[in-house]
Every structure is written in structure tokens, then in C-alpha cells.
Amino acid sequence: MNCDQQSTPLISDAMDKLHISNEMAQLDRKQRDFYDSLTDEERKKFSLFLMLRWSSAVQGDAELQEYYVQSCNYHLNKHFFAVSKHPQLQWLMATAVSPDLGTQRHAWIAPKKKDKAASGVRKFLQKTYPNLKSSDIDVLASIVTAKEIRDYERDHGND
User: Fold this and answer.
1) Torsional sign, CA 97, 22, 14, 12
2) Quick one: how far is CA 114 from the chain centroid?
3) Helix H segments across the chain?
4) Is the CB of residue 28 less than 8 Å from the CB of residue 21?
5) Angle, vertex CA 62, rays to CA 61 and CA 67, nearest 5
6) Angle formed by the axes of helices 134-143 and 116-128, to 10°?
7) Contact 17, 36 (CB under 8 A)
8) Whole-angstrom distance, CA of residue 140 vs CA of residue 130
9) What are the phi and psi torsion angles at 106 (to 5°)?
10) Domain ranges of the chain
11) φ, ψ for residue 46 (rounded to 5)?
12) How many CA within 13 A on the CB side of residue 146?
């Protein structure tokens, strides 16, 4: 290769630079200068919070999956919000997750959806039984339905 030739870039254009697959590839390769390479406009679009959702889940053997979960918890989750005013440091923490074994296939971990009915049941149980431990409230909330709560309230004259 002569001096006029350039190697093939990892990304085809600026839009691909912020595609999650490229971001995860940069994380897996421990590209610590990736965040520094972003323009101010790109930094506004870049979501470090997504690193929490994407970085811990990889496809592959069980040992690799376990490593990523534990590494993400240790390097990223533990102090991520404590350094929220320092996005470059957050990126550096994210790059520490990878064992540097090449690019992995990461999967999205969807946030847990809140069940409004279960939330209402839980609030009712907390109010009715303030001395119960949170774990006991969770067990009760898992076996008592909103309809049973309404029936209980009606039977006790609390329409």
C-alpha cells in the first residue's frame, strides 16, 4: 500500500459512526479515543446511557456472557450516574467492560415494564400493612389481584 492509499474505514459515513453496532464495536475494541473523535453535534446525539442497556448482553458461550454481565456491573453500572457530568469518563468506564476479545454481538435489554395494576396493589398493601418488609409486600403483590383489592375495599365499606 502506498502513502496515497488509505485503509478501509470501520464506518462508511458520519451517520454510521453513531449506529449502535459501531458504538458497540468501538467498546469491544477498547477504542478509548472514540468519544474524543466525536464532534460536538455527534456528542449531543450519542447516548452513553445506552451503553448500560447494550454492553452487558452478548451472544456467545455462557462464560463470555457471564463475564460481560459481571464486568459491566463492576466497571460501568456501579458509578455510572456518580460521574454523569463527565461523559468522557463514562465512555472510558464503558470501554473497561470489554475483555478485548474482538467484536461481539450485543443484544438490547429492554427496561422492565411497570404493571400499573401491580403497582396499585403494591401501594395498597404498603398502606394497609406498613410493618411488612418490602420482600413480603412483593410476595403478597404477586398473589393478590387488583380485583381482589377492590372486592376487599367494597366489603369493608371503602368504595
Assistant:
1) positive
2) 16
3) 14-17, 20-28, 34-37, 40-45, 49-55, 62-72, 87-95, 116-128, 134-143, 146-155
4) no
5) 105
6) 130
7) no
8) 13
9) -95, 150
10) 14-95, 116-155
11) -75, 125
12) 7
Cα 71 from Cα 94, distance rounded (Å): 10
Which residues lie closer than 8 Å to 10 by C-beta, 6 or more apart? 22, 25
pLDDT tens digits, residue range 121-149? 888 889 888 888 888 888 888 888 888 88
What are the pLDDT digits (tens) for 4-42? Answer: 444 444 544 555 899 999 999 999 999 999 999 999 999
From residue 134, give the alpha-carbon distance in Å to each of 57, 115, 119. 29, 17, 13
CA distance 48 to 45: 10
Cell of 14: 458520519
47 pLDDT more than 60 = yes
